[in-house]
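Data follows
____________
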Amino acid sequence: MSPSVKFPIEIRLVQLGLFCALATGSAAARQDEGVSASAIIREMNLARQNPALYATYVEELRPRYDSGSVVPPGGTKWRMKEGLSAIDEAVRFLRAAPPERSLTLSPGMCRAASDHCADQAGGRTGHGGSDRSTPSNRLSRYGIWTGLWGENIAYGKTTAREVVLTLIIDDGQPARPHRKNIFNPSFNFAGAASGPHSGYGNVCTIDFANSYIERAK
């Protein structure tokens, strides 16, 4: 087997308590149901390009922690499993992390994310679609991806800063898979979408890819 051949890595991640939205009017998720994809990706890019600065945002959560919960500025109450230790560990990671190049927002990847949000409106969770689609299947509907891809699914948060802070802290996930997606140096493109969810109020999907070529409409 040629060592130059790359294979997709399926990153199956679900974390309750996060939120994002789509920034293209052609997709199913509506703008007024949450923060835009552009806001989410801009916030992730801030963290990727200046992790030391982002460490200060995480550190600001310490005085907002009380009795097992934290409330980010302008955000919603988040019950933590690990408590302050997760916040402190995220700060240490960010202070040591090297800057990464920014992610490019992909309209096709946003549409793929939107499809999954619409599919989960009735209360479904997880990465598998009701049509048995996988994240890679959905990405392939709107473009051609190569190399690596990943997906985060999240529920319930209402601002871009809150989403990214929660993903980076990744409380309750010892391997910090959501954080790894955000800081993966192999990812160059991303898409996001949000929509209503009968169980959690909203659902967000964020997709990542090493390379993505938009399919002609």
In short: The longest strand covers residues 201-214.
